[in-house]
Amino acid sequence: MEIVHVYSKLRAEFGRQCLFSDRPAELLVDVPPDPSLAQHFIQKKPRDQALQACLDMSEHQVNTKRFESESRGINHVEGGWPKDINPHEMEQTIRFRKKVEKDELYVTSVVQLGQGMEHCIRQNNAVDIYQEYLEEEEEEEEENQVAPSAKTINVFRDPNELKRTVTGLSWHPDGGRKLAAAYSCLEFQKSSRDLSVDSYIWDVENPNRPEMTLRPPSPLVCLDYNPKDPHTLLGGAYNGQIVYWDTRRGSTPVEVSSVETSHRDPTYKILWVQSKTGTDAFSASTDGQVLWWDVRKLSEPTDRLVLDPSREGNLDQALGAVSLEFESTMPTKFMVGTEQGVVISCNRKAKTPAEKIVCTYDSHHGPVYALQRNPFFPKNFLTVGDWTARIWSEDIRESSIMWTRYQMSYLSDACWSPVRPSVFFSVKMDGTLDVWDILFKQNDPTLSLKVCDEPLYSLRLQDNGRLVACGSQGGGATLLEVCAGLSTLQKNEKSLLASMFERETKREKILEARQREIRLKERSRSEQSRSEDGGREDGEDSPDQLIARAEKDFFSVVEAEKRKRRDREEQSNGEENTCEDKRDKEETEEPGASQE
Known about the structure:
alpha+beta, extended, four-stranded antiparallel sheet, Methylamine Dehydrogenase, Chain H, 6 helices
């Protein structure tokens, strides 16, 4: 190959910077259009098209390796107890302690253990391992507390087409991961054959479908988990039967009580009772009976109590039960709320049925829909009925020590917070959830939240006091989470509430004694006036005599009114007759005068 021409350029001119300068425009080429070429083209109308000035990318997915988790639990059992002693039973542990304290070796063993304990105490006094280094910051955080609030987490709706009321709720005893709900229609005229009888167990994190279906013979009005066995639960049916489930055996009940030995009305409340076997429960109904059951044999109740206030055991005079209360620290006592507004305090260990009814409290104008003792102060209990909630003391029967103002809507359920002794929750027929903190204020709720547009009928709190479940008339169970301020024990809260309860109890006792003194003075004054007038001297008149006296006074007033009306009519008739006589006389005198 031969080199024809060589282009030479200096190395300094390679990559030289381009320098631009302004100059006037000049025409380089002018190409006129050719009309003959227009026949080869098709004219289109103008159109807009969006352009994206970025790279085109394709969508793709990458699957990573699946991670499977498994939940495992560990049961911590209290050691040091014999095999035949259940450490969870208070009666057994107290009996065993008394037996051990009487032993001679008990004193020597306590002395030996005391030496080691004294050594540890001296070490702790030398070095304070519990010293708090950030006390000032904690005080500042307490001062800057957030306002009380709550938020809705999930809503569990009745999966059936015909919705039913959520009449009962119960939390799973192990951590509250599940919620059991009872569905039924309490309005007899609105029930139909198309209504489902099923109730459901929901997983808290899955509101789409229930985890398990409970199939009772009749719709459930109430249900309750066994606190000692999380796999078993009891339900009270609309036809009065008691239904027992073991969730490990499926949706079908393990055992059902017979219709002949069950309640005659719907079973409105059922609770587990603390016992050695953990299989005892009792139920209440508006038929006026409280029945005790052993779930191992539901063919007949183990005991029966007729709620007759006269203590005669007459079922015709019994008060219908709507709510129940049982506190494990008081194994022999229980309380019943009736549909007549009376709370009955009972003692199960009494020998005769008449002694089982200890006393009564006239609490509300309507049915007592909720009844619960304060978990920190069992002598004080909460009742809900008509338009108000009341707090009572066992020592005072005449009146409650505290109460809320009458609400615009009917109250249907309430319960204490298991964490904070001064906080309780209540639901109303207008779909509102009220949170009351009686240490903060008593006239108005601390937090009022509109849950739904339907009436709320049931309410249940989780054991940690953080989650609240509310059941509505339309079949929706709403799960709410309250703020940390309403679910965390506050500083000195127990002592402050104890002093408040004690102060209010003393005040009511003083007022009750004053009222009793006024009544005695009025009675003595009335007896003295009767003796002066020659009336009865042996006390007050009987109810029959009072009724007869009222009837006599009423009819005497009626007769006096009739007599007055008769006299008025006669007087008006007499005036009309005199006017007619005068007119006739004038007419007869006028012709005679003309003749003259």
